[in-house]
């Protein structure tokens, strides 16, 4: 059948790094809160998102990363009956000599099917998600930025430091294992 490849170094480093250490008195916190309160205007959101990304980059000494907010529907796949997938946004950059160049975050401002403006929380979540990819390339020096448990832990630590963790999906509940076989026989 298919042989499973062992995880590469980028995957292992992504998995092992579980936090983004952000200063407690960060100016980025106010910008994140302003995005949540912003209007539905894509230009206002883009301006605030760019300021937030610039502030985070300054705090971590990272190279610039542009923000584009496309006032169009999310790229998606539909089978005629159901939505199969959608893209909220993406991060792109080039690596030259290990340095990040031409970094850009693109966010789709409208929902895939109904083409309604995305909520401010979804918008901010997408900005933080895509900036975490920028952090992975520029701060951690990864050659790729996989969606590992470590990636999502870094994203959550960033949102918590900015006091906007409420914009992220809730953490999954641990699976209830119920009583063990030994517990059952002890009764």
Can you walk through the features of this model?
- The chain has helices at 9-16, 28-37, 42-60, 120-138, 149-161, 181-186; strands at residues 65-73, 75-78, 83-87, 89-96, 99-110.
- It is of the alpha+beta class and 187 residues long.
- The protein has one domain.
- The protein has a three-stranded mixed beta sheet with strand order 1-5-4.
- Helix 2 runs antiparallel to helix 3 (42-60), helix 2 runs antiparallel to helix 4 and helix 4 crosses helix 5 (149-161).
- The longest helix has 19 residues, at 42-60.
Tell me the radius of gyration: 19 Å
Low-confidence stretches: 179-187
Order of helices and strands: HHHEEEEEHHH
Beta-strand content estimate: 15-25%
Taken from the alpha-carbon principal axes, the silhouette is: globular
Helix percent reads 40-55%
Overall pLDDT metric: 86
The main sheet orders its strands as: 1-5-4
Characterize the biggest β-sheet.
3 strands, mixed
What count of helical segments does DSSP give? 6
Number of domains: 1
The CA-CA distance between the termini, in Å, is 45 Å
Number of strands: 5
* Class computed from helices, strands and strand pairing: alpha+beta
